[in-house]
Amino acid sequence: MTLRKIARLGHPVLLERAREVADHDEPEIRRLIDDMIETLRDAGGFGIAAPQVHAALRIILVVHLEEGNRPRGDDPLVLLNPILEPVGSERELAIEGCLSIPGIRGIIPRYRVVRYDGIDRDGKPLSGEASGLFARILQHEVDHLDGILFPERLVHPCDMAFESERKHLEDRMRSANHHVE
Ligand code: NI
User: Fold this and answer.
1) For residue 76, how far is its CA from the centre of ligand 1 (angstroms)?
2) SS3 of residue 82 by DSSP
3) Catalytic positions, please?
4) What are the pLDDT digits (tens) for 11-62?
5) pTM score, two decimals?
6) Helix count (H) and strand count (E) of the chain?
């Protein structure tokens, strides 16, 4: 396994639509997934999408979370060619970050519950329902596959701040000005 360089905001690979994985069993795909697992672990994020390591393919990783949203130690969920569908119309706001936009956070609305479908790294169908933070990470990572970064999802352009100013973002999020339609 090798650590891969993470593409940062401004690199065009983050803005293009990634293509479907045609053959999950290709050695290059297997190597890419192993490297993404190691890169995510090293970076300490909640998820990563293949375009973030300069591979424009529809592959995402999402860490398994335990109580209190702490990452569990085992391998993350690996989903190839994922499709998401909102369950219900309820959306909620939370503060999000991205490994490709280090040090910056934003208040982003996401569907509270989504259904995911795709295949795992062995080509087996993988689907389920996700809610809360797990659903949020899935939506964030699938956005990466469509060339969408979280600033595009801001309700207000000023809902973004440096991590050091997070407290102000939290105050802002609680303020009455925020509505999710
Ligand atoms: Ni991201």
Assistant:
1) 15
2) strand
3) 141
4) 999 999 999 999 999 999 999 999 999 999 999 999 999 999 999 999 999 9
5) 0.94
6) 3, 10
